[in-house]
Amino acid sequence: MRTAQLSSHRRPDWCLPLDHASPVPLWAQIESRLAGAIREHRLTAGERLPAEPDLARALGISRNTLRQGLRRLSTCGVLVRAPGFGTRVCAQPTEVLQGLPIPDLTPTANW
Questions:
Q1: Which of 3, 20, 42, 103 has its CA 20 to 30 A from that of 93?
Q2: For the HTH gntR-type domain, which residue ranges apply (predicted)?
């Protein structure tokens, strides 16, 4: 099982820089970036995301903001979160994402 790599305070390759000045909330940008990375197979089924404190630090956001961004994807079944085991991409992520109205908020898409 693969784990998304995150070296000391480095932003993951699949997570484009967040725009702190944007009217789009940071949690929505995180949700969009993760959904896009899964759709484009940069994050694959079963892959584990970096630990929340490490990922939040690398993105320059609070853990609460990160958790808010992960919550909807988890609730819809795209991500599986378990204390002590971390956050992983579900077994059939692209099928689950097809039914979700998550806009593409990458800078090249709408900004």
A1: 20
A2: 24-92
